[in-house]
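Convert to structure. Protein one:
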Amino acid sequence: MNLKSLDKRLVTILLIVFVQMVGAGMILPILPLYAKNEFAMSPTSVTLLIASFFAAQFVAGPFLGRWSDKVGRVPVLIISQIGTVIAFIALGLAGSTWVLFASRILDGLTGGNIVVAQAYVTDVTPRENRAQALGLVAAMFGLAFMIGPAIGGLLLEFGTQVPYFVAAGAAAVVVLMTVYTLDESMTPQEREALRAAATKLRLRAAFAVRPLMLAMTIGFVTQFALGLIIATLALFGEEVLFDSRPELGVGLLLGFVGLSQIFTQTALLPPALKRFGEARTLVVGVTIRSVGLLFLALTVSPILAVAGGMFFSMGGGLALPPTQSIATKAVDDSKRGGVLGVFQSVASLALIISIAIGGVLFSLYAHLPNQVAFAASILSIVPAVALGRYMRLNANKGETWAA
């Protein structure tokens, strides 16, 4: 894919994703410690708070994806982004734990913006370039998470609520960008044809398509490992890695993770896809990801944590875009948004379960905080590589992955 020849709509949606994720990245390293220190929540309760977002997203994801297929991407993007603005403001104004939970649930219910953005990308990108285009979305994630968490940690100097209000401001900017700069990805005629062809893509129907089932299974396993890390990273940073200002330390750590994500999407993913294809690239990605998790399991210092985080991010950057691309190619084009919504729901289900388990493990093994990362490493490698190998072998036999 020649970056100079990118569709202007793709450039615009990538910019929107970047600004959106900068806001989300600001609160990532500070929300768990905010809930623990300001509201006296236990580690288990903190991880349930994090999981509540993904639980709501699990419910709403398929609906928002299908809705965007029918009415267009832009209206759904606007509505979901407004929900994010309200949710961030509520976090900043929260005076009790139920407000914290309500704000995360609201953001999850309306949090189809990334799903819809990915569907938008598939709309304006030829099928053969989808993995690379989705990789550019992941690069925007990396760039945003290189900047956002560090900004969130620094903003704490001005007050514990300030990062949430600034994140709300960033989300409001995204709403304005979407309204005034983003054109719809489909013409009225294409939307009418899509509405005529569209049918609900239920989980049972999705799993009946073997390539889609395999892609979603891999997505579930890899996101399960990610959830264990998300649940405990800030708590682990406070307990093990940083003696003071753990929010800033975790934010900077995530900044290095974001930098490796950018490098992966711009320098590693395109040649890997060209040389190895999607299935083999996926296998390489999950292997590197598991090595990163093993580093985190063995770390007792910020330096090793940075190395583990960078390998983890690089592996995920190589694995996720091919997985999503395989999923979208497994159905006809009228269901692109729906399949990404179902994929998001499966990923959210994995995160819900693993985040809740991560909090319990961290509480039970408080004297061994590295055990969560070790469990994630073990769970990540075996089934993901086995499924990836199965896909590669069938692809070598000439089986098509597009239904």
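Protein two, convert as well:
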Amino acid sequence: MKRTIKDLAELKGKVVLCRVDFNVPIDDVGRILDATRIMNAIPTINYLSGQGAKVVLMSHLDRPKGYDIRKSLWPIAVLLMNKVKANVTFCNQVVGDEVKSRIAAMENGDVLLLENVRFYQGESECDMNFAKQIASLGQIFVNDAFGVAHRENASNYGVARLLPNAIGFLMEKEINALTSFMEEPKKPFIAVLGGAKVETKINILNKFVEKADTIIIGGAMAYTFLVAQNEDVGTSIVSKNNLDVARNILQKAQMAGKKILLPIDHLCIRDSDKKKKVLTVEQMIDDMKGYDIGPKTIELYSKEILTAGQIFWNGPMGLYEDNRFKKGTLQVARAIAKASGYSLVGGGDTVAAVNSFKLGKNMNYISTGGGATMKFLEEGSLPAIDVIQEKIS
């Protein structure tokens, strides 16, 4: 068990460096399009502030190459000023004299948000000199950034090696939810996987062949599996480098007595069709390209999902951003929302889809991580969690 912020004694007057995940979509005029990740961090911020700590927040935003005003955390500071109980201010740097003087001026319970840590090259490289500069600002480190816990960065992994540390409430909630989901699965366990890239899902597919009873595959990655079974998918996206991987997963599932469901019909368009007419076919041929699962597949998948004891979902069933191809993802989301089994949703695209369909409240647990969620389910921990001190019993 990792140390949590509840295990930290005497926080009053201490400078607590808190790594959060404020990597949220912001438009060109600085409007936050989805504040879910920010709102998830507020219980930890309020607790630390309420204990009288001087709370210094750090986060990344996107993947800037050096300083980029469009990737500044300033709009997030403005939101926090309205949502957090404490006095919130912003500093447009992460390390240096300006930051030190701003921290020195803080009152107990104040909150200071630092600028985007990825403006500094040392962050992604986990440069320990940069980590030491950050660590010198505070006395305690708290990691509440689950969404980036699979990365060894200076502000989450490096700083944790240098200061007494603990995890925040969000990190604790994620660890508990994902651990019990994999270690005590409710049967039948159904995994629903979609999206485009087979290569990013190989490890989790192998894990689910061990742990799940049924694996449902949709999205563009389904076409690689269909080709691995010698089916014609026209000009649909196929990862030719992963055909042997797909065959191996299908074979392992068969030998383990596990069920893998693949699409039995498709929504597609002919490359040569100038009018871009959508066709519903049971098998694609020549220049047809698949963009979504068809009505028979929707029925097959939905029926299976309704039998689940627990369901994991990552990845859309098709190009759901285009209204012509959103039905597969929408109907699968509705089936998961309706199912009596415990549902866990992870991954940025999937969470965005669930929220766009206004079905978030019908899911039992929505993980804040994308790659971090998948990696945790595969391995049972993550580098930025491993480095946190254990709870003293």
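DSSP finds 15 helices and 15 strands in the chain. The first strand starts at residue 15 and ends at 19.
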